[in-house]
Design a protein that fits this description.
By secondary structure, this protein is mainly beta. It has no helices and 15 strands. The strands form four sheets. It has a five-stranded antiparallel sheet with strand order 2-1-5-9-7, with no helix packed on it. A five-stranded mixed sheet has the order 3-12-11-6-8, with no helix packed on it. A three-stranded mixed sheet has the order 4-13-10, with no helix packed on it.
Length: 174
């Protein structure tokens, strides 16, 4: 009811009817961090090319009131990232969850963004898109170090003086 100054309609009564509809609600987390559709990306630590990251576990929760049906989970870049398990054609009951893992194994240097797309019957977030990023660096070149008696020799800079040596005489190593 709505209070009114109208003498013949005070209060004004408005009758409403409706029917509640059960629906699934997809929530994505890694550990305690929640990721939202098209929001903050998951970022891997920088890696050297051809090295594996630790696999990161993601959990899809159904916080809705009906079964969440996952139809496909698609990884955009399958060269530098690996999806550890398939959730295609998975059903998650209300209050339930299912997990998948993701690893970063860069094959080239630079910034390597991608996405994970989760297709489902969530009426609000279908598809659910999670942005992923990773940075890859080149394999470090080997470094040669020469020392004698605790002194570093620097390439093209350090000269070791053997003193006077007779021609044809072998000097013992020092």
């Amino acid at each position: 009811s709505i209070p009114s100054t109208d003498s013949d309609e005070n209060p004004f009564v408005l009758k409403l009817t409706g029917t509640g509809v059960a629906s699934p609600e997809l929530t994505l987390k890694s550990g305690t961090t929640e990721y939202f559709h098209n929001s903050t990306p998951y970022t891997f630590d920088s890696r050297v090319v051809d090295t594996n990251s630790t696999s990161i576990q993601f959990t899809i929760f159904n916080e809705g009131s009906s079964t969440l049906n996952i139809t496909t989970v698609t990884l955009g870049d399958t060269t530098n990232y690996t999806l550890g398990s398939s959730l295609n054609e998975t059903s998650i009951v209300p209050g339930g969850s299912s997990t998948f893992t993701l690893a970063f194994t860069p094959q080239t240097t630079g910034s390597l963004p991608t996405t994970i797309t989760i297709d489902s019957d969530d009426p609000e977030d279908d598809p659910f898109i999670l942005s992923i990023s990773g940075e890859a660096t080149a394999t470090p070149l080997p470094e040669v170090t020469v020392k004698r008696a605790g002194v570093d020799f620097i390439s093209d800079d350090t000269i070791y003086n053997y003193g006077s040596i007779d021609v044809g005489v072998l000097t013992p190593p020092n």
